[in-house]
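User: New here, any thoughts?
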Amino acid sequence: MASHKIPGTQLTSAQETHQSGTSSQTQTGNPELEARKRALNEVFGLLKLSYHNQFNSAFQDVQTLNHAKRLWLESLSGFTPEQILAGAKRAIKQCEYLPTVHRMLQLCAEGEGGLPEVRAAYREACNAPSPKANQKWSHPAVYHAGRAADWFFLANNPESSAFPVFAAHYKKICERLMAGEQLPAPEQVQLEHNQGKPLSKSENAKKLAELRAQLKI
């Protein structure tokens, strides 16, 4: 995708330098940092195009704009350039108003499907059949929160007891996502392909009798 080079939105090394006489110590030559700067330049260009009046009202002069860029660069440091650009595109689609840093953190962390609201996440976790890891989750955070809360606990306790536990885990996981942590995908359980030789009628009857004896039925 071509960069949107909007006048007044370019983040330069000189603009990032604090007025302390230590410009030689600025973080130049770091490929990841430079890629994130380029992504933020493009993000601010997209935001200026999409929220023109709000953007100009929020960043009325170059100094304010440069301060904002430094803040965003630091705040979004846990995310890749691709995640930052994706977050900005979600903002344009979802947000009526110019996103704050906090909203951008959420948008960068969401992923394609978005993070479901906590009550919806709880219901998804409770209703998912086993094996849990093999289900199609709206977001990996739901699976990890359910696993942390303990599937057996969620299934065998009323919502009044189970929901607060799930919600606490879900909140912590969402905070980790907003800090830029990448959640691993659930490790799917490999189902047994070789089912073996079917039991004969007599073997089946014997097995059933053994189970009934064990269960005392």
